Structures are given as C-alpha cells and as structure tokens.
Amino acid sequence: MFNLILFGPPGSGKGTQSEKLVEKYGLVHLSTGNLLREEIANKTPLGMEAKNFMDKGQLVPDEVVIGMIDNCLDHHKDAKGFLFDGFPRTAAQAEALDKLLLLKNTSIAAVLALEVTEEELVKRLLNRGKTSGRSDDTDESVIRKRFAVYINETEPVAGHYKKEKKFQTIKGEGSVDDIFDSLSAVIDKKMK
Ligand code: AP5
C-alpha cells in the first residue's frame, strides 16, 4: 500500500491536485472536506452538526472526522493506497491516523505540502466563492479565520511527519500541470 498526505493551507490546491494524482496512481481519494459537504447535502445529523463549524471557518470536532476516516478505510479494504486531502488537521487526528493504518499493517509513505502565499490563497478562494456555492469562500473574514486555524492547529502537525523524515514542501504556485509534475516526480521516487 502507498499512502500519501497532501498538506497545505485552504486554497493551496490540494483538491485540484488530488483529483489528478488519484487518477495517475490509482489511489483512493479521502477528502474530509468533501465527505463533510456530502453529509451536509444529505442533511444528515452529522452534516448539520458539521455545518455550524464549517460556516464559521472552525474545525469540526476530531472524533467526528476520525470516525468518518475509519469508516472509509473499512469500505476500501482492497485499496492500493489512500490519498488523504485535508486530513489530518490536528495532532490528535495525526495520532489516530497512525493507529488506524497500523491496524492495517501500513503507514504514511510521504507528506507533500503545497506552499502558496496568503495573498494568492485569498484571491483563489474569493474567486471560487463566486461560483462554488461554498459558504466558507464568500466572506473574507471566514477565509482569514480558516488561515488562522490552519496556522494554530494544522501547521504544527507538520512536525509529527518531519520527525519521521516524511515531510516535503512543493511550490504550489504556477500552472496546475507544472505543480502536478513536481508532485509526481517526488511520488515516483518514493514509490521506487
Ligand atoms: P476543506 O474542504 O478541506 O477546505 P480547505 O482546506 O479550506 O481547502 P480548500 O478546498 O478550500 O482548498 P484546496 O487546498 O483543496 O484547494 P483547491 O484545489 O480546492 O475544509 C473545509 C472545512 O471543512 C474546514 O474549514 C473545516 O471546517 C472542515 N474540515 C475539513 N476537514 C477537516 C478535518 N480534517 N478536521 C476538522 N474539520 C475539517 O483550490 C482552491 C481554488 O484555487 C480552486 O478554485 C482552484 O481551481 C484554484 N486553483 C487550484 N490550483 C491553482 C493554481 N495552480 N493556480 C491558480 N488557481 C488554482
């Protein structure tokens, strides 16, 4: 199994690159943001609880997202590997992921972090907000809140993977194809 984490702030291109990477490498894409938005669209109790946090730019409680990931891993027992997008976002989520993967005799092979300036991130998200229907993209104060949450709660998770020498940064600005090529070059090396 080859398991990858795509790391980076809101708007850094994790979702965009994940779609291309899962196609190229045959991995299962696990995006906690997409899973939560599906729950909201289906008006489930979990979705309704999550919406309150997401609309404010806050993180959904750890136990909710860890439970979702646990279910997804169980649903894809024959997967060649997983691409985690937007997860883990807290130290508790990173520890839980290690344990869940260990139960399956596997682990994270690499964490690739997309680096983009805050100015470019705000521009991308406000632009997407015009058409995406995502309520957390239309209000700049909610976007700024998501960045603050990223700096305070998610960035420290990098340390967890740096200790294991699994963390690598990739320039996340430029064309989607060029960034995809940079990511692919690193993944190809890791897969050898
Ligand atoms: P989530 O859905 O994960 O959103 P996010 O991290 O805020 O990331 P985005 O989807 O906004 O950005 P992205 O990096 O995927 O970039 P994208 O490719 O879309 O989370 C939303 C909320 O859910 C959280 O705030 C939280 O409440 C909750 N949540 C989710 N996971 C959670 C967890 N694990 N724990 C707790 N709560 C959780 O690109 C962005 C835009 O830029 C697009 O319009 C795209 O077309 C454009 N773009 C992409 N690449 C380029 C490029 N190279 N040049 C120009 N434009 C580009």
Please specify the SSE layout and strand pairing.
Blueprint: E1 4-7, H1 14-25, E2 28-31, H2 32-41, H3 45-54, H4 62-75, E3 82-85, H5 91-103, E4 110-115, H6 118-132, H7 140-154, H8 157-163, E5 167-171, H9 176-191
Parallel strand pairs: 1-3, 1-4, 2-3, 4-5
Bound molecules: BIS(adenosine)-5'-pentaphosphate.
How is this structure best described in words?
This protein is an alpha/beta fold and 192 residues long. The chain has helices at residues 14-25, 32-41, 45-54, 62-75, 91-103, 118-132, 140-154, 157-163, 176-191, and strands at residues 4-7, 28-31, 82-85, 110-115, 167-171. The protein has a five-stranded parallel sheet. The longest helix is centred in the last third of the chain and has 16 residues, at 176-191. The model has no long low-confidence stretch (mean pLDDT 96). Bound molecules: BIS(adenosine)-5'-pentaphosphate. BIS(adenosine)-5'-pentaphosphate binds next to helix 1, helix 2, helix 3, helix 6 and helix 9. BIS(adenosine)-5'-pentaphosphate binds at residues 8, 10-16, 32-33, 36, 53-54, 57-60, 65, 86-87, 89, 93, 124, 128, 136, 146, 176, 179.
